[in-house]
Amino acid sequence: MNSAPTALFDSYEQDFQQFIATIGKRLEGEDSNELGEERKATLRRVDMELDEADEMVSQMEIEMQGIPQSIRAEYHTRLRTAKADLVRYKKLLKDQRAQVARSDLLAPSQPFSTSDDPYGTNSDRARLLAGTSRLEDGTLRLQESQRIALETENQGADILMNLRTQREQIEHARSTLNTADSSIDRASNTLKKMIRTYVYLVHFYGSAYPNS
Questions:
Q1: Distance CA 61, CA 8 (A)
Q2: CB 64 within 8 A of CB 129
Q3: Whole-number pLDDT of residue 74
């Protein structure tokens, strides 16, 4: 096993180059002449291969940390080249996917039927019925959402009303409690005065009724 500090970097770079070679063949080589579903399948494979190549670049970045400073500049250049290749092929994949989608959109539709069928071909009728069904389903879902929103709004209004009533009851109870506290304070002060008067009379006159 090669124990050189650059061994793993070299290994990941080699794997990356193999992926890039395959990707280049699919996007720019003979495979690029494919059409329709065959081309879509190839582009899906390219997408997965680009993910693998991206992982190889990530591993190369990690291994860069262990490469001696004396030779790190060379490997840093190789890493930048790999990243540039990855970016270029990702963009190329995106462009070719858009081209395939555009081709599907511009593909000629089935010719109009010359029969008495007012909807054209059976396929056209099926698409029309399916579209109508989806529209009806969407309308029903919208109506249901509006109903739920209205119910929620009404429930919210009821809750707010209940909270307002409870707040008024609490404020009334608080007012009653404050009034009771005030009455208790007055009664307490009166009682304290009576006790002080009683103690004074007993202390100086020996009785609470000095004239008796």
A1: 11
A2: no
A3: 94
The helix, strand and coil proportions of the chain, stated in percent and rounded to the nearest 5, come to 85, 0, 15
What is the number of alpha carbons within 13 Å of residue 88 lying toward its C-beta? Answer: 11
Burial 105-134 (b: 16+ CB within 10 A, else e): eeeeeeeeeeeeeeebeeeeeeeeeeeeee
Write out the H or E segment, with its range, that includes residue 127. helix 122-205
The tokens describing 103, both together, are: 């081709």
- Whole-angstrom CA distances from 81 to 13, 54, 84, 158 are 11, 13, 5, 67
Which tokens go with 96? 């070719």
pLDDT in tens, 143-171: 777 778 777 677 776 666 666 767 777 57
Mean per-residue pLDDT for 93-104?
89
| Pairwise CA distance, residues 89 & 29, whole Å | 13
Judged by DSSP in three states, 89 sits in: helix
Winning range, highest mean pLDDT, from 117-131, 169-183, 187-201:
187-201
Confidence band, pLDDT 50/70/90 cuts, at residue 210: low
- Which residues fall within 8 angstroms of residue 209, CB to CB, at 6 or more apart? 201
Distance CA(61)–CA(76), nearest Å, equals: 9
Spatial separation of the C-alpha atoms in residues 155 and 170, rounded to whole Å: 22
